[in-house]
Amino acid sequence: MKKSILIGLALAFLFVGCAKDDDEVAEFNKPALYWYQQIGNSIASGNMDKADAYYISLKSEHMRSPLMQTAMMMLAVAHMDEEEYLLAGYYLDEYNKRFGGEKNREYIEYMKLKAAFLGIKDVYKDQKLIMDSINGAGTYLLRYPGSTYTPLVKTILVRLHMSQYLLNENIAALYERTGKPDAAKIYREKNKGSIVEMADITPPEKGVIGQVFD
């Protein structure tokens, strides 16, 4: 909880900083539709910094506008397209807090899981994110057993287990090379309960996670 609050504050300061550096975004007291159109124009031109700054203006001046809902989702998807998954997750969290309901929560939770999964860049540095994503995918499958997104979530889950298996195997191999067989055994024991086996895995050329959504 504290971590998500800190991330939100950091992103808010980032957005405000962008606004101060841009004369156009320094405008104020505009209709909600004006800010919304500027967000769309900025996304279309590939200027996500400006789009974020326009969102801050929309949020500051028209918090209760019905355009807020579409703007949040538009920005979340745009940041995912730009491979800016932390920012995408921020907007999805904001959307869930304000507009999440029985009808759309299944989709939003799937999008958050997808953003977290695609945000894994280094399996050695992102071990906690991998474990959190495994738990999140398992929870999703239990919560939405008949979801349209079940096949994709299962694919994500298998890829995550594969990355975890390869990570443990690589660490075990390293310990063996450095003359620490007991430590190597610990990591190989972790793989015994995995839903995948080494024979199931072909390490991808572009990293352990690989490409799921291409």
UniProtKB/TrEMBL annotation:
Keywords: Signal. The keyword Signal applies. InterPro entries: BamD-like, TPR-like_helical_dom_sf. It holds the Pfam family YfiO. Residues 1-21 form the signal peptide. This is Outer membrane lipoprotein BamD-like domain-containing protein. It comes from the Bacteria. Residues 35-184 form the Outer membrane lipoprotein BamD-like domain. The lineage of its organism: Bacteria, Pseudomonadati, Campylobacterota, Epsilonproteobacteria, Campylobacterales.
